[in-house]
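Shift notes (night). Ran Aldo/keto reductase while the centrifuge was going.
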Amino acid sequence: MQYRQLGATGPRVSALGLGCMGMSGMYGPSDRAESIATIHAALDAGIGLLDTGDFYGMGHNEMLIGEALKNVPRDKALISVKFGALRGPAGDWLGYDARPAAVKNFLAYTLQRLGVDYIDVYRPARLDPNVPVEDTIGAIADLVKAGYVRHIGLSEVGAETIRRAAAVHPIVDLQIEYSLISRGIEDSILPTCRELGIGITAYGVLSRGLISGHWDKNSAGAGDFRAHSPRFQAGNVDHNLALVEALRQIAAKKNVSVAQLAIAWVAAQGKDIVPLVGARRRDRLAEALGSFEVVLTADDLATIEAAVPKNAAAGDRYAAAQMAHLDSEQARSH
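Came back to this:
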């Protein structure tokens, strides 16, 4: 396993992280036993960074990880948790709450579900428009002092918010979507993080499977939120799958899979970037681990850039209502 430093003040982490969201129904049904086996396989391979959100499956994801870690030494897993999203009993999304009292309440439940006494990296999932980010970060800083949290991270916020948060307490990383077809962070967010010594944990490196090389138009079944994602919609999906075919030709010449090429591209953008892969099965995890063997030369990167130029994808990365709540996108659009 290769390792990277998570920001200037953060822990040493595996150069690949496991995003566990898909194990709790966001992409349709998943197999509990296979999910746990996949977490164990990741740990055995040296992937210690496990990423979750307390709202994935309304707590299901944390309980699943807690079950998987029951007999695992606590220091073998580095747990990253997002909080703040409000859900209804029907699974609906009701907004965000990042008030200081809510922060402490969310963490109390998270510790119980995971069966641990501290969280390695704790982060608000989104910016709460009703709460100054300084108040939210200050509340997490109190939890750091009390020993319940080790490090503070951010998620999906723009450059100005990053600066305001970092002025309150050291921030180890920003979790944000970054892939060959989602490169918005390159404009101002990534330079700001680099200036402040903040790492990037990149999710969506395969654009929710779209550029995995495995997805086709028959892949999204019941309960799969990709059915509502603009990039998977009719009119966009054919254009985007044509980009995947261009990547497939490059991958074939290098004797690697499309997914391995796409993960390796993200990893090649800087030592301060840790890709998160959302493998729900051991075979997909093994494929992702193979990305470490992929060496991309300057010529390879130029070829990939020509095949999939910046802004080549059709459709936004989220539906319009969700895009409107992303501080990272609002900052770009003004």
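Residues 237-254 form the longest helix (18 residues). The chain has a mean pLDDT of 92.
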